[in-house]
Amino acid sequence: MTEQRHSGKAAMVTGGASGIGRGCVERLAAEGADVMIADVADADEAIAACADLPGRVQAVSCDVTDEQAVSDAVSATVDAFGSLDISVNNAGIVFVAPIVDSKVADWRRLMDVNVIGVYLGTRAAAQQMIEQGRGGVIVNASSGGGRHGVPNFAHYCASKAAVIMLSQSAAIELAPHKIRVNCYTPGHIKTPFWRDIASGYAEVAGITEDEAIAAFEDTVPWGRFGTPEDVAGAVSWLASDDAEYVSGQCIAMNGAELPW
Ligand SMILES: NC(=O)c1ccc[n+]([C@@H]2O[C@H](COP(=O)([O-])OP(=O)(O)OC[C@H]3O[C@@H](n4cnc5c(N)ncnc54)[C@H](O)[C@@H]3O)[C@@H](O)[C@H]2O)c1
Fold first, then answer.
1. Which terminus, N or C, of the chain has the lesser number of Cβ atoms within 10 Å?
2. φ, ψ at 92 (rounded to 5°)
């Protein structure tokens, strides 16, 4: 078999059953990594799509808000593939809520998945990588919304800004262990996630879901929504040795939307 840039590495991708996470699973496995999908959703379809790729792909049921489940998912990765070298903390949720109508319980649920989930994934990966003693790579899901405010998405933007600061701080702290920590900030990527945005935004703006999708697409200078593959290529590069001196950074993939 041809040597690929991730050959011999093991990765775990949270939220890898769908959308951007699934795109990352496919790209990492195509480039030789063995990949564990850690998701609350069924991952059979994602696993089947990777059947002919050089890397092995398996799944473990994991709710990223559950401390024990995240730690168990890392253990499952090490048991299956012998190590954890790449940790992609991608799982996240979204909903649309004007501040005046928003509910504390909804804010807490979103912060639990988007912030605590990334924290637990970063912590568990770092613990394992420090024990292995040969560095590693952590890549966390932020968003363009983590860099600028968006009306009706205050909860989501706040959670994604937290991911940026968590990742930058961890990058400095873990550098002596040669563990790199970066995040990606996608713009508008067409995934199942957009069902929640389109239905919520249509309700708030009094338009149809199709009109909501078209309105968002119109804001992208590149003229189209991004795809999971648009994000996965950059994530795979961040995970590679070509990015060896890149840590504490946010990489945007957003079709030239501001801000970068
Ligand atoms: N799609 C976009 O336009 C966009 C833009 C910016 C940022 N992002 C971020 O990228 C990441 C992936 O988004 P996506 O568009 O692929 O979403 P998606 O809804 O298509 O996929 C999310 C995946 O996460 C899983 N998940 C949700 N809650 C979980 C939990 N508690 N534990 C484990 N898994 C859980 C889901 O089952 C699903 O498989 C998210 O963090 C999202 O905030 C997406």
1. N
2. -165, 160
